[in-house]
Amino acid sequence: MTRTRANGVRLALLGTFELECEGARVRLPMSAQRLVAFVALQEHPVLRTYAAGSLWPDTSDARAHANLRSALWRLHRCGHRVIDATGDRLRLDPAVRVDLHEAEALARRCLVDGVDLELEPSALGGDLLPDWYEEWVLLERERFRSLRLRALDALCERLMHAGRLDDALDAGHAAVAGEPLRESAHRALVRVHLAEGNTGEAIRQYRLFRRLLRDHLGLEPSGRMEELMRGISTIDTVR
User: Fold this and answer.
1) pLDDT tens by residue, 27-72
2) Are 189 and 170 in contact (CB under 8 A)?
3) What is the mean pLDDT of the chain?
4) What are the angstrom distances between the C-alpha of 83 and each of 1, 5, 56, 197?
């Protein structure tokens, strides 16, 4: 089968794995999905030996390489060049669009170049392959989650200062949903509620965070959170 360039290929890794070619979903066996995801998460082309050993660590080298060849064959049957398997190295075809890469670029722009106030929180994506538990996925998932949450914090703060309080609440709630024990996200929500004049909502947000922190970690909110609440009332009243 003649394979075409990947101009119309889009790979989704956030929330779920999905490969689309020219707008049509391509169904792949799990072995091919894992190969595509693994290569897409690498910053540079990887040796076939490294890919085979990482994806099939509990088999012999010969079996791992056979599995890799089989996965590549199944992938190439889709008719589009998703992975460039030239020589002894593998890389994602540069024309493949990856939602993770796009979300990472947006998040970095929020943190480095300033926040685009028209950015929707959903554009920063969800968790990376949440139902996959391989170590190489777990490490990348945590890295992206940290980047995403810091960008949402920045977006929430910028929207609040711009007076777009409803949008700021959306960004803050997205950050809390991504990591319910993240104090910076709860503090941001408290500040937004105060900017709206909703003192009761601010107190409820504080109490929710305090309860979560106590129940899950046996800790108390930081001094920064307590100082923020002292600006509302006495700490005894807030508690």
Assistant:
1) 999 999 999 999 999 999 999 999 999 999 999 999 999 999 999 9
2) no
3) 91
4) 15, 10, 18, 54
Closest by alpha carbon to 32, among 79, 88, 82? 82
The structure tokens listed for 224 are 């920064």
Q: For residue 181, count other CB atoms closer than 10 A to its CB.
A: 14
Q: What is the mean pLDDT of residues 180-187?
A: 96
What's at 117, amino acid-wise? L
**Core vs surface per residue 78-110: b (16+ CB within 10 A) or e:** bebbbbbbeeebbebbeebebbbeebbebbeeb
Reported as a pLDDT band with limits 50, 70 and 90, residue 156 is: very high
Backbone φ/ψ region at 10: left (φ over 0), alpha (ψ -120 to 50), beta: beta
How far apart are the C-alpha atoms of 203 and 39, rounded to whole Å? 46
Those residues with Cβ within 8 angstroms of residue 228's Cβ, 6 or more apart along the chain or in another chain = 187, 190, 191
